[in-house]
Design a protein that fits this description.
Blueprint: H1 10-18, H2 24-35, H3 42-52, H4 79-82, E1 101-103, E2 109-113, E3 125-128, H5 129-138, E4 145-149, E5 162-166, H6 170-173, H7 190-212
Antiparallel strand pairs: 1-2, 2-3, 4-5
Length: 216
């Protein structure tokens, strides 16, 4: 009965202590049979051992080097679980296949390409789709240049929508005190804005070159 103190004889206590390292259900069953103590439930047996500090020494965790009890054994067949298991050759529904696309935090489309990932060694890597398509058509982006989106829509990855410009032009196209960012201009005005920025960049470059030659 709950709340009732269960008495144990010295012989019983000595036996329980001596067998405290065994599996509790096994030791409990033998104790009840040996001492005819059907009034002692497994929960009572466990509580006594805990109060006395007679622990089994088992944590329930695998220790380093320990062999799992089911190593080499086949999983018993169960019809309900079998229909949900992966079959050999199956891939998860969220597998990122070659050609899979995703959107970066900056709003650019990235595509999985058939090139080794230099960081992980995996057989595929993600690349900027607009650059990947542009380079397939035109070759590598010239050194010192970047691809600029012409229509302001970064998800438009058609090579015709991207133009290589000097990297030094990016601050000029990002806006400033006297002009707004390139992408905020009306579509029909953008070609002029880009042309003026390129002209200004070329003029500054020529001026610096003349200064370096002492012609300024």
């Amino acid at each position: 009965m709950k709340g009732r103190t269960i008495p144990y004889s010295p012989a019983e206590l000595a036996w329980i202590k001596a067998n405290s390292k065994r599996l509790r259900p096994e030791a409990h069953a033998e104790f009840c049979d040996r001492f005819d103590r059907q009034d002692v439930a497994l929960s009572n047996f466990n509580s006594l051992c805990k109060r006395k500090g007679w622990m089994t020494g088992r944590t329930g965790n695998f220790t380093k080097g320990q062999t799992p009890y089911n190593k080499g054994k086949r999983m018993p067949f169960n019809a309900n679980s079998a229909k949900h298991r992966f079959k050999k050759g199956n891939l998860p529904h969220n597998t990122k296949h070659l050609g899979h696309e995703r959107l970066s935090k900056e709003g650019y489309v990235e595509i999985s390409v058939d090139e080794p990932n230099p960081h992980t060694g995996f057989e595929r890597r993600y690349a900027l789709k607009h650059r990947h398509l542009w380079e397939k058509k035109h070759g590598p982006v010239p050194e010192g240049q970047v691809l600029k989106c012409i229509d302001g829509d970064k998800t438009n990855t058609d090579p015709s929508n991207w133009k290589p410009i000097p990297r030094a032009l990016l601050p000029r196209l990002s806006g400033g005190r006297w002009y707004k960012p390139y992408d905020q201009y009306e579509p029909e005005v953008r070609p002029t804005v880009l042309a003026l920025a390129q002209l200004d960049h070329a003029a500054r470059k020529a001026s610096k070159r003349d200064a370096d030659r002492g012609l300024a």
